[in-house]
Specification:
- Its main location: secreted.
- By secondary structure, the protein is mostly helical.
- The chain has two domains: about 1-150, Peroxidase, domain 1, CATH 1.10.520; about 160-295, Peroxidase, domain 2.
- The protein contains 13 helices and two strands; from the N terminus they run H-H-H-H-H-H-H-E-H-H-E-H-H-H-H.
- It has helices spanning about 1-15, 30-45, 50-60, 90-105, 110-125, 160-165, 175-180, 195-200, 215-220, 245-250, 260, 265-275, 290-300; strands at about 185-190, 230-235.
- It has a two-stranded antiparallel ribbon with strand order 1-2.
- The radius of gyration is 19 Å and the shape is globular.
- Residues about 1-5 and about 5-15 have low confidence and may be disordered.
- It binds protoporphyrin IX containing FE and 2-acetamido-2-deoxy-beta-D-glucopyranose.
- 2-acetamido-2-deoxy-beta-D-glucopyranose (NAG) binds next to loops.
């Protein structure tokens, strides 16, 4: 089954990827993908939440300047990494660790941007999500500027704004739903909950879309004057497993993040969610896993640099 899926996907990708290709390193660094996989594996064994952290890192890398490792840079003034829209993004140490090993095995060959994309895939696998072939050949960007991240999607954006920000990157409403479903793993800081729980309505009040049986629990975990760094799972009841449970939660008013809740209000995005819960699913309906894979591969192609605009960094946190 997984094999058939992989075959079908590589067929699709063959026609749609443009510049990247499967197995880009198969001649120049055959061990590349296995080195990255074992680094991710060790990191997730040591800290189970690292899977979510690495998946989020891929999203944040791709949405600013394309998937080019621009978020990894920390040796320039005002690097992109410090942007408000990247609040809480981590995982840099895992990418650096993989890069160190790759530089020993095949110096100057594997880009940091590809490490991020492959690590996200391996993180999904570690949480029982789908395995899939990742087209590679991204080169690392030469620009990292905090002000370029000002248009990151925000948790309090309207559904119209979320859609527009995804359209800008060549992603559809369907991609918005599927990629938001990455919140099937991981946690959020209470910092991102205050607006939704206490100031959603001018003058005070919570988001009416929160199921009334869920609201007290959220408010108790994230009290208005509590510690903003306390973390809570975004897919209540299934936060360690990569599955479509998050979409059921969104349908039922159990979304934790405000932006996830908005997906159930819009006709188009709601119909995408509902398509995974038809009476004939899972026998005949669309597969959440297969559709997610298509969307995440698409996200991984945003603004990729395969020419001399990019470089292969020696160290992921600094330009050559
Ligand atoms: C639709 C726009 C999106 C918004 C507004 C959004 C917002 C957020 C916020 C506020 C958090 C909590 C961060 C923290 O407290 O550390 C978060 C976590 C996360 N996001 Fe998103 N996100 C979006 C899309 C995505 C996409 C497209 C992906 C990946 C495909 C993704 C993957 C994740 C993951 C895995 C986490 C958990 C991180 C952890 O546990 O540390 N998100 N997101
Ligand atoms: C970052 O971008 C802003 C806005 O485009 C620009 O004014 C600023 O000079 C840039 N900073 C660096 C270090 O290039």
């Amino acid at each position: 089954m997984a094999f058939v899926l992989a075959l079908f996907l590589s067929f699709l990708i063959g026609f749609s990827q443009g510049k990247l290709k499967l197995g880009f390193y198969s001649e120049t660094c055959p061990a590349a993908e296995s080195i990255i996989r074992s680094t991710v594996r060790n990191a997730v064994f040591a800290d189970p939440n690292m899977a979510a952290v690495l998946l989020r890192l891929h999203f944040h890398d791709c949405f600013v300047e394309g998937c080019d490792g621009s978020i990894l840079i920390n040796n320039v003034p005002d690097p992109e990494r410090q942007a408000f829209g990247h609040q809480g993004v981590r995982g840099f140490d895992v990418i650096d660790k993989a890069k160190t090993q790759l530089e020993t095995a095949c110096p100057g060959v594997v880009s940091c941007a590809d490490i991020v994309a492959l690590a996200a895939r391996d993180a999904i696998v570690m949480t029982n999500g789908p395995d899939y072939p990742v087209p590679t050949g991204r080169r690392d960007g030469r620009v990292s500027n905090k002000s370029l991240a000002s248009e990151m999607p925000d948790v309090s954006d309207s559904i119209e704004k979320l859609k527009a920000k995804f359209f800008d990157k060549g992603l559809t409403e369907k991609d918005l739903v599927l990629l938001s479903a990455a919140h099937t793993i991981g946690t959020t800081a209470c910092f991102f909950m205050t607006h939704r729980l206490f100031n959603f309505i001018p003058g005070g009040g919570s988001d009416p879309d929160i199921n009334p049986s869920f609201l007290p629990e959220l408010q108790q975990k994230c009290p208005q004057t509590g510690d903003p760094n306390v973390r809570l799972p975004m897919d209540e009841g299934s936060e360690q497993t990569f599955d479509k449970h998050i979409l059921q939660n969104i349908k039922d008013g159990f979304a934790v993040l405000e932006s996830d809740a908005r997906l159930n209000e819009d006709l188009v995005t709601k119909s995408v969610i509902d398509s995974y819960f038809g009476v004939l699913n899972p026998l005949f309906g669309p597969s959440f896993e297969a559709d997610f894979v298509q969307s995440v591969i698409k996200m991984g192609q945003i603004g990729v640099k395969t020419d001399l605009l990019g470089e292969i960094r020696k160290k992921c946190s600094s330009f050559n």
